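Posting here for the record, re: N-carbamoyl-L-aspartate.
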Amino acid sequence: MIFEHENVISLKDFEKEDIEFILEEASKLEDVAKSKEKSRELEGKILGLLFYEPSTRTRLSFETSMKRLGGDCIELGDAAHSSVSKGESLADTAKMFESYCDAIVIRHNLEGVSRFLSDIVDVPIINAGDGAGQHPTQTLLDLYTIKKHFGKIDGLKIALLGDLKYGRTVHSLAYALGMYDVEMSFVSPDELKMPKETLHDLEESNIKYNQTNSLKDVIDDVDVLYVTRIQKERFPDVEEYERIKGAYLINKDLLEGKDLIVMHPLPRVDEISYDVDDTKYNKYFEQAANAIPVRMAILKNVITHRFE
Ligand code: NCD
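Prediction output follows.
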């Protein structure tokens, strides 16, 4: 089987086989990811990093992944120091990137931007987060982390907790988990529930889920607790954020005696206490490390597919 997607934009475009294929490919790249083995598979290829929103892990892990495969990166850098500050449009910037590189990774605050770019440029587009929309490559590394720990995804009980309204990682993850036989729970303050559109899509595909605002309802009977940050930057009203922030706190005491793993796409603000870091529950740093083999698998397939 080959991965036939030209772009990586939304989990809605994926089948379970596509996900499994990338996870399998990623596991074969573990040694290259850890620099135990050398690869020149993408030698001569250039990845364009077009980040209009802050990023640490996503940008750096794409860069590391590309370099570990022998390729190189160019990046827009700080918008204030590029022609964006002179008023250059996103479309013009992307057109220029198209002629300078072999694939573009884009992060933007507007939903749908990566789809828009895929219509106007001929190089593969990888969505690294479009507003409150999706974050598909994060989902692939989340699933990889779950599978690596449990040896499977089917049969697990998985709770997504926090800002389910504005959090793009949980939107992609919900669509992906819907392709597996899992018990999904959505735990959020009432104001930050999973968007109606996502719930509607899940229902259309006969995917069952529970919804609650109480962590107590799920904490004793869950295998994965996927925690997210309240997305301050997406709140139209700062006072609303101030009222809701700190809605949940995961700490060592709460987890004592439980049989589960805690995941988080990071950055965390105050939703996971630092005393969880040194416990067996902590999977969030490993999750960040897994970004490398998974993003390597994505880059390898998307870029080489283009030249087949
Ligand atoms: C996430 C994002 O940008 O959506 N970060 C990431 O890529 N790991 C999560 C977040 O910012 O809360």
